[in-house]
Each structure stands twice: as C-alpha cells, then as structure tokens.
Design brief:
The chain is an alpha/beta fold. It has helices at about 10-35, 40-45, 70-75, 75-85, 95-105, 120-130, 145-155, 165-175, 175-185, 195-205, 230-240, 255-265, 285-290, 320-325, 345-350, 365-375, 385-395, 395-415, 420-430, and strands at about 60-65, 90-95, 110-115, 135-140, 160-165, 190, 210-215, 245-250, 270-275, 295-300, 310-315, 330-335, 355, 375-380. The radius of gyration is 23 Å and the shape is globular.
Length: about 425
C-alpha cells in the first residue's frame, strides 16, 4: 500500500488530465486493431472497463500482464497458487489478441481472461468496480500509472512480479524521481528477475524493505503444450532424417539461418530445418527468403507435407512451438543474433532440448548465464558459428546428450524457486 505522505505529483496530474482528453482517440485506435484481429464487439468493450463476464464469488486474485510471454509465464504460477488456495478465483488481463488466444487454450482452473481497461479514470474505475480484486499482481514492466494508483486507492494490495526494467526505462524514471516514488509507493512487494533490477527499483524510489531479488518467472513456466496427433504425423513424414530447429526468428535472422542450413546440407544432405518465425504473419516474407536462397520448403499453413525433397519445413502457425520442440531437441533460439533481447531458453530446455543462441539476449541474461556456464547452451555470432555448432551436435552424440542433460538440470534448479515465490506472495498480500 502507499506510503504515508505520498501525494500525486504535477506530472501525474498532467498525465491524468491528458488521458481523459486522449482516451476517445486511443479507444478508436484500439477498437480498430481489435476488430482487425476478429475480436467480438462485446470483448472490445473490455478495454473501456465493461466486463464481459460476471465476477465470481469469494476471493479473486488478479494478474495483469503485457503480452504473450508475460501472460504465459504466470499460468503455471496461477495453477500452483490455485492448489495452495483452493477457494480462490483468478483473473488474468492482457492487452493483445494473440495473448488472449493462447491463454484461452491454457487457462488454469478457476481462471478467466479479460482485456485490461485503457489507462484513463473512467475505464479503470469501471473495471475495478466490477471485479473488486482482493490482490493485484502486475507482471514484468507493465506499469500503467492510473491503473496502479486507482487500485491502491480501492484498497487492493499490489505486487510487481518478475520485475524487469530496461536501462532506458530506468533512466527515464530517474529523471522524474518524485513521480517514480509516487507510483512505486503503491506496491506492497517487488519480486525482481535479478539483482540489477532490484537495485534499479530502489534507486528509483521503491522501499528497499519491499524489494526481493528473485528469478525469471518465465523459467518456471510449465512445458509448452504438445499436439500428439500432429507430432506423430510429422514424425512419420520425416522418418529417420536428422532435424534441427530455428525457433522464434526475427527479420534479419532468417538469412543467417538459411546460410547456415545451406552449408550444413553440403555435409548432411538429408538434413531438415524446422523454421519457426516469431511472428507467423511473416510467413510469406520468410517463404520468399527461402526461395531466394534456392532451398525447397513445405509450409505448415498450406498443409504441405514433408517429402524427401523438402529441405525446410516452415512452421508459420501460432501455438504449436511445443510440438516442434518435442519433435527435435536441437534448437537455435532466435531474437538473439541481433540486439532484440532474446527469448525464453527454458521453453526448449523443458522439452529436453539443448540450445544455441546469439549474443543479444539481454532480456534473459540471468537465464542464459547458468545455461551456458553449465553447457546446456552455446553462443554463436555468425552463420559460420551456427553451422559449426549444429554440425558438432549432429556428429557428436555424447556431447549433445551431455548438453541436453545440463539444460534439463538448470530447469529443475530454477523451478524449485517457484514455491518460494508463492510463499512470498501469500505472505505479503495476505492471501489465505
């Protein structure tokens, strides 16, 4: 809860007034995006604070996340927290249609999803008045000032979980220390991903007694779902061919991956690359890159089978990555060859995979460090490096097996911290 003497700053008051004026324009933009994504009108209204579901009776614990990764990272936590608190109900809010679709497929028991209200007084108060949460848990760096301040004013204890702040964000808040202190004083608990974020929060004005260095919650999420029917079908098409996976690739990375695969084919002519772009809507563009590289491709969205002449299987769909990890335990994880920040290496590691990564993994630095140190992951910088890393694991079965074992061991160590997270949340937010 807020500290005594903490009053709204001029900057916050200006923000509050500006959002009141700009909310109608923001709503027009948001509604257009949701409509294009096929979100029903009733659910679009959730962004204005109009709930599409009734509030369940009893204790309600609210989790607010930014998008796909943050949303999925808390699902296992909600499941285990539900086992600890069998009478509790749960609400998870996230802002993108993609996150809503994925969450809908994996909702824990007694959990429902809503889109969050726009950060303006009217939508926020309608949202809080309807749902009346007994606790609010904000995930990572999704700090909407009015949502936080109004929730605190309504007597809702708040926690910032899996806290992560970029250097740019920290520098910006430090220029506005009074406003940063005003916002942060609304929270009863901060559980950070690493010591650096903990130090930054204290420097920004958070109460040091409420800041707890923790671990990356994404590392503790449950395994990705596997479609056994799809898995069996693709396995039968591939047969005994060797396979490697390039997952969550971004614009500018596929060219490196394709160059490496072309080189690998010189020594492993039956090798298949399973290519999973981070954004499936880029499927047409990636298909063009594959053709330009002179390689053959079967495309998942076109239901094209893998034949003996297929050199690349383009998995340009959403929500099937767990199936592809179950298919192949040799994974290059994208978002890392460029300064994108990387993606969660524990998702492939939980599936039994060893991981290859580029150096640009600052969003998961504390996750990759033990993986690389223990031999569960290796870092590459160029197409030649990637070629050599894949080739080494294809040819040296003992080395590859040891890397997979090391990756699995790191996952087990991290997951043991989840009980501590649950204990801390229950204690600090008075959840019983």
């Amino acid at each position: 809860m807020s500290a005594d003497g903490s009053r709204p700053t001029l900057l916050y008051s200006v923000y509050r007034g500006a959002t009141a004026v700009l909310a109608p324009f923001a709503w027009t933009t948001v509604r257009r995006k949701l409509s294009r994504a096929g979100v029903p009108v009733e659910r679009q209204q959730e962004r204005l604070g109009h709930a599409s579901l009734p509030r369940p009776p009893g204790q309600l614990i609210w989790f607010h996340a930014a998008s796909v990764g943050e949303s999925l990272s808390v699902l296992r936590l909600i499941t285990l927290l539900g086992e600890r608190l069998p009478g509790a109900e749960f609400l998870i809010t996230s802002g993108t249609p993609t996150s809503a679709a994925l969450i809908a497929k994996r909702l824990p028991p007694r959990t429902r999803h809503q889109y969050p209200p726009l950060d303006a007084v009217g939508p926020v108060r309608r949202f809080l008045s309807h749902w009346r949460p007994d606790a609010g848990i904000f995930v990572e760096s999704e700090l909407w000032p009015q949502l936080i301040v109004e929730a605190d004013a309504a007597g809702i204890p708040l926690a910032l979980l899996n806290a992560r702040l970029s250097d740019t964000s920290v520098a910006g808040w430090k220029k506005r220390p009074n406003t940063a202190r005003f916002i942060l004083s609304r929270f009863s608990l901060f559980l950070t991903q690493n010591d650096k974020t903990a130090d930054n929060l204290v420097a920004m004005g958070a109460d040091p007694k409420l800041v707890r260095p923790g671990t990356n919650l994404k590392a503790m999420a449950g395994p990705l779902p596997v479609d056994e029917t799809t898995l069996a079908k693709i396995r039968s098409e591939i047969g005994t061919r060797p396979v490697w996976v390039a997952s969550s690739t971004h614009y500018g990375e596929e060219e490196v991956v394709l160059t490496a695969h072309a080189e690998l084919l010189e020594h492993h002519p039956d090798l298949l690359l399973l290519l999973i772009p981070r954004h499936p809507e880029r499927g047409d563009a990636v298909t063009g890159l594959i053709a330009k590289a002179g390689l053959t491709c079967a495309r998942r969205t076109e239901n094209e089978p893998v034949t003996e002449n297929t050199q690349i299987y383009l998995a340009d769909t959403l929500g099937e990555t767990g199936t592809w990890y179950a298919l192949c335990p040799l994974v290059f994880l994208g978002g890392s060859l460029l300064q994108i920040g990387g993606h969660n290496p524990f998702e492939p590691a939980q599936a039994g995979a060893a991981v290859i990564t580029g150096p640009g993994t600052y969003n998961f630095a504390e996750t990759f460090a033990p993986l690389i140190a223990n031999g569960g992951a290796v870092e590459v910088k160029t197409a030649e490096d990637l070629t050599n890393a894949v080739s080494h694991w294809l040819q040296d079965e003992a080395s590859f097996s040891a890397a997979r074992t090391a990756a699995s061991s790191c996952v087990t160590q991290q997951q043991a911290a989840l009980d501590t997270v649950i204990d801390t949340l229950c204690d600090q937010l008075s959840l019983k």
